[in-house]
Design brief:
Layout: H1 2-7, H2 16-24, H3 49-59, H4 68-78, E1 83-84, H5 87-90, E2 108-109, H6 114-127, E3 130-134, E4 152-156, E5 163-167, E6 172-175, H7 181-190
Parallel strand pairs: 2-4, 3-4
Antiparallel strand pairs: 1-2, 5-6
């Protein structure tokens, strides 16, 4: 299968793509691109073996931390009491339940209103700062964990935990992003309705 795939041009010979890319830039002789070339550079080669290792090292390469004045601007939006900087206070936000993914961040923001979330995102867009939203931190695929570079800010939605309304007639409810499943189920039950979503992490 591998020989057939190479013959059809879907796979590069092992090692050749990376040697060519690292020694003399993009291999002009091939109508194929690689992850080591400047973007845009789509490459259909599967992320396996050495290629996977290169991608991993590129993603986790160290970079300069976010400047302190910028962190202060973010912290001012939610107030210092809800801007976590202490290593011990931040630690629970940097690991998921199975302890398979670990991250780093200089700041965890805990907004208490939609307006504060909007202000955080406006500043992040202005300064090109990466934001990682996190709610219950119960996911097991690592999407809620910041990278190990330490140049992303975690925005915890735990304080946005209000059930805004329950409409029994239309079987609908409006809740904040940080409402846990157990609270949503209780609100529906009080209205004589069933919230039909149940997970182990509720």
């Amino acid at each position: 299968r591998r020989r057939l795939a190479r013959r059809q041009g879907r796979l590069a010979p092992r090692g050749r793509l990376f040697r060519a890319a690292t020694r003399r830039g993009h291999p002009r002789s091939r109508r194929r691109t690689c992850i080591l070339c400047p973007p845009p550079c789509p490459d259909p080669t599967p992320l396996t073996g050495r290629r996977r290792g290169l991608v991993s090292r590129a993603i986790n390469a160290p970079s300069s931390p976010l400047p302190l004045p910028l962190l202060d601007r973010f912290a001012k939006i939610v107030g210092e009491a809800h801007a976590l900087r202490d290593a011990e206070a931040i630690a629970p936000f940097l690991i998921e339940p199975r302890a398979r993914f670990h991250g780093a961040t200089p700041l965890v923001l805990r907004p208490g209103s939609v307006a504060e979330v909007a202000a955080i995102l406006a500043l992040a867009n202005e300064t090109r700062t990466a934001i990682v939203p996190q709610s219950g931190n119960t996911g097991v695929v690592g999407g809620q964990i910041p990278s190990s570079r330490g140049d992303e800010i975690v925005v915890s939605l735990a304080r946005l935990n209000r059930v805004r309304s329950v409409d029994a007639e239309s079987n609908a409810m409006i809740v904040d992003a940080g409402v846990i499943l157990a609270d949503a189920q209780s609100a529906a039950d009080r209205a004589g309705r069933l919230f039909p979503l149940s997970l182990a992490s509720e």
